[in-house]
Amino acid sequence: MSLIHQVKSLITKELILEWRSRYALNGIVLYVVSTIFVCYLSFKGGIQGPTWNVLFWIILLFASINALVKSFVQEPAGRHLYLYTLASPQAIILSKIIYNCLLMLLLSTLALFFYQIVFSNQVQDLLFYFLAVLLGSISFASVFTMISGIAAKANNPGSLMAVLSFPVIIPLLILLIKFSKNAMDGLDRSVSYDEIVILLSLNVLVIASSLVLFPYLWRD
Amino acid sequence: MTKNWWKILAAVLLIYSFIAGLLVAVPRLPILHETIRNLYFHVPMWFTMIFLYLLSVINSIKYLSSADEKHDFMAVETVNTGIVFGFLGLGTGMIWANFTWGAPWPNDPKLNGSAISTLMYLAYIVLRSSIDESQKRAKISAIYNVFAFPIMVVLLFILPRMTDSLHPGNGGNPGFNSYDLDSNMRLVFYPAVIGWILLGVWISNIRYRIRILQHKF
Questions:
Q1: What average pLDDT score do residues B212-216 get?
Q2: I want to staple B71 with a disulfide (CB 3.0 to 4.6 A). Which of A3, A143, B62, B110 is the partner?
Q3: Residue A125 half-sphere exposure, CB side, CA atoms within 13 Å?
Q4: Which residue has the higher pLDDT, A105 or A25?
């Protein structure tokens, strides 16, 4: 089987598994919605400017850690062994990253939609703000997939996941917040090109190093 | 004796940089005044930290390709020493900032970046302590080390250049060499950098040998 074929069938497997046990997906959607609602109730009278933007990204950060920590933990070790005999490690990590991108895209779009309803829309350049959310989903997915693979091998993956991923995600988060703030204020689009290029190249870097390092993590 | 020449060199260079750093005349600049002497102590800490982290990544890569425990020992001991130098760099920087910028922790991208990279290596230590099996621990921590290092480079060297920073050489501020690192200061600064890097390597080398002895017996 070629790599692309393997990746395709692995993603299909993930989608079918997720669809069968919808409680995981529903749980994480409910997590986002209730966090936003808790924030809404706590900030009485609404929020303005930078706080609006930063709060959205903080909510998204914690939701994505919770959503993606399970990508390796949830599966029993026997299934890993079975997959090992069937597919190449590159195909496995690539399919996980792509699947997590899709999951994060769904999650962050829902979050943005609900956040704008509750906290009234303050974004002036909605298309570019959505591009920031799209890039954010890809960044979160690519970083957290590899980190969850690392954390899954340790004793307490849940808390270790946050400790290991925060220092790695912070540079990306700083860029995302800056980029989305530009879009929120409706600045000229050329202002954000630097951020977009650096974000994209960081993502390429992270995915490339995942592809190189995952075979070592997998062989166990 | 022929093998230890670099240790003697480290000691000589450090003694020289302490004496010359505190006594040799420095340019009188507004705001900085005599605190400019901290350049000889603050900046070499960061250079040493980066150098030790680089050594650690090289050793982690070597471990992944050879599975030889010695490389893992070297990787963890360079990180341990690097963290100490990181804290020393933060400490000397905070004292300096308190006198020149008015606060120990101004909101500066370089400060925040170095704090985050320290967190990254503390996370590496936490990851190591949470795995019991020694080979598994070596492999997984090596993977995290290699994964995190490029991000740290971006954090420390690329992001601060994009925003305004109080540090020289960032965000439109001219670098040190353009106006105030005059030739007198270079004569002290470069030996100090080399001396501190050699001292850092020396400390991690001793710790590495202790670890090997502990492992054997």
A1: 89
A2: B62
A3: 19
A4: A105
String of DSSP letters for chain A: --HHHHHHHHHHHHHHHHHHTHHHHHHHHHHHHHHHHHHHHHSTT---HHHHHHHHHHHHHHHHHHHHTHHHHSS-HHHHHHHHHHS-HHHHHHHHHHHHHHHHHHHHHHHHHHHHHHT----S-HHHHHHHHHHHHHHHHHHHHHHHHHHHTSS-HHHHHHHHHHHHHHHHHHHHHHHHHHHHTT--GGGGHHHHHHHHHHHHHHHHHHHHHHHHHH--
Number of domains chain B is built from: 1
Beta carbons of A150 and B131 less than 8 Å apart: no
Residue B160 main-chain phi, psi, to 5 deg: -60, -25
Asked if the C-beta of B117 comes within 8 angstroms of chain A's C-beta atoms, the answer is yes
Q: What is the mean pLDDT of residues A107-112?
A: 92
Contact B143 A150 (CB under 8 A): yes
Report whether pLDDT(B33) > 80. Answer: no
* DSSP code, position B30: T
- A160 close to B (CB below 8 A): yes
Separation in Å, CA B102 to CA B39, B89, B107: 17, 18, 12
Query: What value does the mean pLDDT of chain A take?
Result: 87
- A43-58 pLDDT per residue, tens: 887 788 888 899 999 9
CB count, 10 Å around CB of B95?
Answer: 15
Rounded mean pLDDT of A91-100?
90
**ipTM for the predicted complex:** 0.86
Nearest CA in chain B to A162: B123
Judged against a pLDDT cut of 80, whether residue B32 lies above it is answered with: no
Are the C-beta atoms of B201 and B19 separated by less than 8 Å? no
Residues counted in chain B: 217
- Cα gap B17→B189, rounded to integer Å: 8
Q: B29: which DSSP letter?
A: -
Nearest CA in chain B to A170: B116
Give the per-residue pLDDT at B173. 46
Q: What does the domain layout of chain A look like in residue ranges?
A: 3-218
> How many residues does the structure list for chain A?
220
Question: Which of A146, A153, A170 lies nearest to residue B147, judging by beta carbons?
Answer: A146
Residues of chain A contacting residue B148, judged by C-beta atoms under 8 Å apart: 167-168
